[in-house]
Structures are given as structure tokens and as C-alpha cells.
Amino acid sequence: MIWVQSWSVLLLAASAVACASPKVGYDYDSGANFSAYHTYEWMPGAQEVIGDKRVDNSLVDSRIRTAVGARLQAKGYTASVNGKPDFYVAYHVAVKDRMKGSSTQRYIGDYAYGTYTTISDVRSYNEGDLLVDIIDAASKRLVWRSSAQAEVDPGMTPEERDKRIGRVVDQMLSSFPPK
Questions:
Q1: β partners of residue 114
Q2: I want to staple 32 with a disulfide (CB 3.0 to 4.6 A). Which of 82, 90, 132, 143 is the partner?
Q3: What are the pLDDT digits (tens) for 135-163?
């Protein structure tokens, strides 16, 4: 029975870590007139290639562009139809291989005689970074940037990836335009 309870706690902890919220932040140019922005367009040119096949692909590109476009449209912005947007949108994405570990010390023995043992647990994981930039179309200056960082689960289904990217982009763009 204790084994079943321990296993249940472990599964609960693992699912909490897998669903952990990303770290999200933003910065902006306080001199920019965000109320003048109504239309947007993706930054002209090809998406930046970083040489990592985990992110340099059309599936990731489409998911990010779809999520950003949907969130901007939900905020009342429209895609430019005449090729003269008020602002451009760009994104940058990266995945880094990381390691995390923990250790636990246990005392084995009785009160008078015993020893400490250390149990270490080290595991590798992927950490993803996403930046979304808003660039003033007239001046070509960066006026707003949001960043998100989170653990990436390579075992997600395509549907789970869509939802995860959508949630992350929603959190990122919740502060655009700045108040």
C-alpha cells in the first residue's frame, strides 16, 4: 500500500512539472505610440535558421505564426492587405539541452553508529526559448518584445503541441500593447 501511495505522489509530481508554466517576461519602448497600431504583417524575408532541426521546420513555424496571428486578431489587430502595416511581427526560437539534478542524504544505522549516504538523480531535458518581437513599420525599430522559457516535452502529440504553443503565446501577448 505504501508503494502505491509513493508511486501516486511521484506521478502527481511528474505531471505538475510537465505542466509547469513558462517563465514569461516583456519589455517595450515607452516612447512608442501603441495606440496608432492597427494592422500588422510578418517581418519580410525568410525565418531565421539557427541550425537546429528541432525548431528549423515548417511545423514549428506554422504553429507559432498561427498562434500569434490568432492572439493579435483576438486583440483587434488585422493583417495588412495593402502591404503597409503599422507594425511587423517576428519571432525567434531555440531549444537547449540542459541537465538538472537533485540529491538526498539519508542516515543509515542507529543513533550511535551509522553513516550518511547520498542519492543523486540527474536527468537531461530540453529547454525552449521563444521571443516575439513587435517592430514599428515606419522606423523599423523594435518597440516591444516578449520572451518565454519552458521545458519542452519531445513526447507530445501534435494536438498537445498546438495547445501548448497557443497557451504560451497567449501568456506572452497578454501584455501587448503595454498599458
A1: 109
A2: 143
A3: 999 999 999 999 999 988 888 899 999 99
